[in-house]
């Protein structure tokens, strides 16, 4: 049931705000975020307060409505400039619900606004409210009485048909973000690789729709996924930390016309390995699994939407980059699944190692099974440079076939509409040149000696390595089998402690690739 993956009971859309309706349905608070779209029953109250309060339309406030005999929270969106985007609505809805919680609300109702400049302002407002109500998995488990911040939440809009459609999509999206937050936000022990597998086994995904397989045997990993196995080596000696490759697959009832393959970085804790992180930089590294968490969240949206004519495969590369006598070290030469001889430069560049062999395997399946209209992705909190370059946005980097199809622009357009923004970066010849083998007998160097945040083109270069190590560079526009491939760096957009994970970039991906 999707209700398990919502922060509280979400009731049917509301089209009336009369006093009797509120009491009959036990609503105790009405939340408003757009002062130009105040429900009729509240207009006189709003006008009176605006007359006596110069900051009424710029600060959050809470007061009683005599007309509705209930509490009102007003968290204004405020004036929007040319540089604002639809996220202002999500932020305002979040502020409104946060203030309602402080006021003691248990059954709030959000008045859902629309905006001609932001066509998805209504949906984004609903999603912003639901995001504010998320309770971390470990708190839900440890203190069950705190598993919900409200008993129920309702949404008001005068057009019931439109609101019903909005709620259907919002519930599917929120279910996906809920799963992504649970996995991405779990601490290094609660979401160690074996426990991620167990979490998924507990009814998170409908086994009738999403088929799951797991590879954990060390011998198999060493033989078939040697780069992943190198990262896993130090953790493998601790049973509760042993790595997992988790494959999730969906096939619609109709013959597939489109194939999506998503490979996610799931580093459950990143010490840096032998190149250990220092200066307090290790704190927060339990979030280095948000790429794989996004894959699981996207598959949850797939399960909810059940798109027709689409074949979707998700791969979660769950591994802990531990430090110890067994850890892999710089100067090792490891042959990847694709046959590339890789020289390790920095063990803190483990994410690209963890994903490359699984990506190669998926490429092999694409060719062997002649999959139609394929688009492959890697999703990762990959580089500190991404954060420096674009802040809290995601970055998309397309290979030749994906760029020729205009993919990055479409993803950016849909992300802008839904409040899941992207910046576009372009891969260049220099990125591939920087990973060329230096010593006789090696094909590829894994990284630069300096961290990405101190390297030129620090978020583009690792993508070139992933393509070289997996063999995807051989499937460009002029090859016999072009394959669309995009790397999504979510280091800046996935969410940093103390905030919950955001679930980025699954909303933009779903809007671009799952909806007609």
Descriptive overview:
The chain is of the alpha/beta class. It folds into two domains: 2-164, Leucine Aminopeptidase, subunit E, domain 1; 193-324 and 347-437 and 457-513, 3-Layer(aba) Sandwich (Aminopeptidase), CATH 3.40.630. It has 17 helices and 17 strands. It has an eight-stranded mixed β-sheet, sandwiched between helices. β3 (61-65) and β4 form a beta hairpin. α3 packs parallel to α4, α4 (121-132) packs across α6 (160-185) and α6 packs antiparallel against α10. The protein is elongated. The two termini are 24 Å apart. The model has no long low-confidence stretch (mean pLDDT 95).
The value of Rg in angstroms is 24 Å
CATH level 4 superfamily of the largest domain: Zn peptidases
The tally of domains stands at: 2
Mean pLDDT: 95
Distance between the first and last residues' Cα: 24 Å
Number of strand elements: 17
Helix content: 25-40%
CATH architecture of the largest domain: 3-Layer(aba) Sandwich
Walk across the major sheet and give the strand order: 7-8-10-9-13-17-14-15
Overall shape: it is elongated
Features:
516 residues; elongated; alpha/beta; eight-stranded mixed beta sheet; 2 domains; six-stranded mixed beta sheet; single chain; Leucine Aminopeptidase, subunit E, domain 1; 17 strands; 17 helices; Aminopeptidase
What topology emerges from the helices and strands here?
Blueprint: E1 9-10, H1 19-24, E2 29-32, H2 43-52, E3 61-65, E4 70-74, H3 87-103, E5 108-111, H4 121-132, H5 137-142, E6 152-156, H6 160-185, H7 193-201, E7 211-215, H8 218-224, H9 226-232, E8 244-251, E9 258-270, H10 290-305, E10 310-321, E11 333-335, E12 341-343, H11 350-368, E13 374-380, H12 384-390, E14 394-398, H13 400-404, H14 407-418, E15 422-426, H15 429-433, E16 444-445, H16 461-470, E17 484-489, H17 506-513
Parallel strand pairs: 1-6, 2-4, 2-5, 5-6, 9-10, 9-13, 12-16, 13-17, 14-15
Antiparallel strand pairs: 3-4, 7-8, 8-10, 11-12, 14-17
Helix pairs in contact: 3-4, 4-6, 6-10, 8-9, 9-11, 10-17, 11-16, 14-17
């Amino acid at each position: 049931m999707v209700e398990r993956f919502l922060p509280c009971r979400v009731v049917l859309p509301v089209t009336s705000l009369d006093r009797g309706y509120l009491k009959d349905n036990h609503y105790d608070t009405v939340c408003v975020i757009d002062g130009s779209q105040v429900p009729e029953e509240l207009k006189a109250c709003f006008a009176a307060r605006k007359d006596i309060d110069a900051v009424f339309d710029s600060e959050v406030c809470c007061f009683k409505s005599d007309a509705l005999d209930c509490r009102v929270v007003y968290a204004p969106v405020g004036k929007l400039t040319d540089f604002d985007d639809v996220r202002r609505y999500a932020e305002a809805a979040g502020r409104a619900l946060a203030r309602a919680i402080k006021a003691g609300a248990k059954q709030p109702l959000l008045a859902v606004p629309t905006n001609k400049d932001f066509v998805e302002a209504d949906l984004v407002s609903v999603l912003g409210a639901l995001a504010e109500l998320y309770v971390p998995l470990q708190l839900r488990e440890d203190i069950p009485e705190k598993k919900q911040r409200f008993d129920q939440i309702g949404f008001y809009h005068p057009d019931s048909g439109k609101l019903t459609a909005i709620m259907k999509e919002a519930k599917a999206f929120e279910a996906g973000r809920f799963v992504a937050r649970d996995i991405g936000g779990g601490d290094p022990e609660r979401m160690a690789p074996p426990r991620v597998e167990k979490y998924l086994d507990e009814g998170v995904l409908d086994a009738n729709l999403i088929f799951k397989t797991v590879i954990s045997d060390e011998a198999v990993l060493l033989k078939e996924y040697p780069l992943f196995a190198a990262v896993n080596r130090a953790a493998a000696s601790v049973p509760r930390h042993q790595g997992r490759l988790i494959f999730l697959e969906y096939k619609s009832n109709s013959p597939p016309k489109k194939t999506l393959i998503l490979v996610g970085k799931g580093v459950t804790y990143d010490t840096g390995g032998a190149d250990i992180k220092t200066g307090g930089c290790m704190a927060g590294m339990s979030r280095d699994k948000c790429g794989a968490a996004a894959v699981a969240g996207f598959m949850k949206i797939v399960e909810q939407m059940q798109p027709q004519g689409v074949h979707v495969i998700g791969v979660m590369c769950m591994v802990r980059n531990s430090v110890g006598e067994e850890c892999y070290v710089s100067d090792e030469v490891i042959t990847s699944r694709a046959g590339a001889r890789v020289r390790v430069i920095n063990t803190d560049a483990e994410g690209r190692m963890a994903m490359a062999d699984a990506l190669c395997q998926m490429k092999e399946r694409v060719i062997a099974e002649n999959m139609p209209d394929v688009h492959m992705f890697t999703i990762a909190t990959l580089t500190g440079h991404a954060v420096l370059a674009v802040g809290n946005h995601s970055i998309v980097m397309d290979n030749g076939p994906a760029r020729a199809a205009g993919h990055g622009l479409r993803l950016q357009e849909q992300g802008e509409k839904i409040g899941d923004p992207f910046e576009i970066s372009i891969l260049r010849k220099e990125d591939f040149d920087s990973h060329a083998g230096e010593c006789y007998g090696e094909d590829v160097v894994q990284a630069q000696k300096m961290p990405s945040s101190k390297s030129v083109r620090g978020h583009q270069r690792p993508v070139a390595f992933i393509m070289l190590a997996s063999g995807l560079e051989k499937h460009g526009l002029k090859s016999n089998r072009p394959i669309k491939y995009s790397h999504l760096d979510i280091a800046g957009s996935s969410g940093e402690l103390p905030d919950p994970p955001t679930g980025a970039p699954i909303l933009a991906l779903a809007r671009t690739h799952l909806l007609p």
